[in-house]
Every structure is written in structure tokens, then in C-alpha cells.
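Summary: Need help interpreting a holo structure output

Steps to reproduce:
1. Submit the protein chain below together with the SMILES for zinc ion.
2. Request a joint structure prediction with the ligand placed.
3. Inspect the C-alpha cell block that comes back.

Expected: a single structure record containing both the chain and the bound molecule.
Actual: see attached output.

Input attached:
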Amino acid sequence: MLTEDQDPARTGESSDTPPQSAPPASGRRYVPPGRPSGPPQLDFPPVRNGIDYLASVVEHLDENESDVGPRDLKYAVLHLQAAVEVLLKARLLREHWSLIFKDPGRATRKNFESGDFESCGTDAAVERLRDIAGITIDRKEVEALKDLTKDRNALQHYGLTHNAGAVEARAGRVLDFLMRFLDTELLPLLQGPERERAMQDMIPVDAGVKNISSYVTRRLNRLRGELAGLESQTIMCPTCEQMTLVVAPQSGDCRFCTASWDSAELLVFDYLVCSDGQLARAYPCPQCDTTTFVEGVNFVDGPRLSDTLYCFGCAARHEARDLANCSGCSRPWPIEADVDGSDTTLCPDCWNQVSPEDVA
Ligand SMILES: [Zn+2]
Ligand SMILES: [Zn+2]
Ligand SMILES: [Zn+2]
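--- attached output ---
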């Protein structure tokens, strides 16, 4: 699974004992990536290495693949700890290379370049990220990281002796933190091929985390606050199928899986493709006339299984009971806006085609 430039010797990993099914890390020696004399922030294999550990975590915890057994949980926790260390240090490295030394005061460029130094542990990395890089890591996240270290140590020495459910829930908390950390603090800093490669590597991770219930529960809990007040704009995401897609005119932005769309047409296409074989359709919108008016869109604040029609273009929202089909072209049209006063509903286009004699 590892490619040659994900050489584990370059990870900067400081676990005492490497995860067993992972490539062995080189103890506490950190070997800087890339050209020995080049600025380290231009070359960034640790990010990919960290994502590779994360991919392994997700594989082990993916409930769609198989039930999560004790062995899966063990390797998930070991590799999650490795991913945490590698990715936190990858971010520190962007700040300054000396910060990944156990003692930055004694860091030398020469030792950094030769990899001859002891690197800092997770606790110190978190502290430096907060104090020096100004990254927000809240108290609960710090606790989750500390708990993971404890679980990791216990698993490494004694195997799984604790309640597996609790260990899995704690792993879910750290996974939630790490996904957010990658999205907001690390991936946006990458550029060019490095970024493309990381995005590529994240595809299986993004796909797998959706099937991890401890992660999903944790993340949805956290999102509850973030989505409060946005209920009238929140619908099901076609990518992750959570009710976490916040829509606005011409765009949509999923807070759960971070999928986003900046065109109403693309969003409508994905939405219809993923609407589970139900025969939802898009019609010309009564307000903006674009064919982005979709039936059967369920909002968080709407009644369950409501027949809401929503325009992804101009954000017009109508309940099915307030609409009738135009007798001419059958597009949905608001009953109250119907102009002829009869039982028959005609949209303005069809109304204009009616010859004056017909009306008379
Ligand atoms: Zn989503
Ligand atoms: Zn519209
Ligand atoms: Zn019509």
C-alpha cells in the first residue's frame, strides 16, 4: 500500500513501538523529507504518510467492510495514534523545522538535515500548535488525544482489555478531530502536485469514514451546534447522505463530508442521481425559470417525507399542496399565482399562447 516515497523512515513518527502491520518507523529518529539542503516546507511526504495511516484506520473501522473485531480496533487505535503524530508534526514543520525537535532550543539545522534528533511527542506538538501556530484545539480534543495515547499504550502492552465500545468511541473522537485538522489546517496549505496527491489519497478516507458509526455520531453531535439556525436551509447531502447539506442560491456546502457545489445545475444533477431510484424530477422554476426546481427535497425543518419543491438556483421553496400542474406544459405552478381564476392552472407561457378567441 505504501509507495516508495512514503518511506516510513521519513515519517518523523515517535511511537515507541511501531504499529505492527504498518511499516516499521525508525524509532525516534526523524529523517527530513526531500532534498537534504532544500527548505523542508517545500517537500512534504509526512502528510501523505499520515494520510496513509489514516486510510488504514478507516479500513479497520469501516463497518461496511466487516464487523469491527478486537483486532481491527487494535490496529485502528495504533495507526490512529501514528496518524496523529505524523500529521501534527507535518503542520508544525510548516511553522518552523525546529519545532519538531523535542528541545527546539537545542535544534540545529545540521541535525535536522541529517535526521539526527529526538522529535517531540504528541502532547508537546499540541501545545506548540496552540501556542505558536495559533491553532484552535479545544480542551475536549486535547483530552481525546490524551485518551488515545493511553488506549494505544494499553493495547500495545496488554491487548484489548477495556470495553471495546468505549475504545471505539474514543477513537471516533480523535478521528473527528483529525479530519477537521486536515481540512482546515493542513490540506489548505498544500500546493500543486502535493495537494493533488493528498486530495487523491483522501478519497478512500472520505468514503470510508461515512461508514464508521463512532465517527459519524461524534461528528453529527458536533455539527448540531454549527447547523443550529440553518434548519430551513439544510437538506440531505447526495454524497454522504447525512442531513448536513446547507444550500444557498446556486450553491451547496455539506458540513459533514465537506462536499461542495458552486453550480445549481451540478447540484441538481448529483441530487437527482442519488435520490435513491425515486423518480424525482427537475422542472423549470416558477420564480427564475431555470430547470433547477426539484420535487421531494426534504429540509431539516420540514415535515418528514414532505413534498417540498426547491429551486437550487434561486432558493424558491414551495410545498406541493400549494402547486398545481400547468394544463399546458405540466410544470408545477403556484395555485395562488394562477391568473385565470378558473379551476385550470396555466403558467404565463402557456397563458400567452392561448389565443384571444379561446379566452373569449
Ligand atoms: Zn455530505
Ligand atoms: Zn428558481
Ligand atoms: Zn405551462
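--- end attachment ---

Reviewer comment: The radius of gyration is 26 Å. Residues 4-223 form one domain.
Status: needs-info
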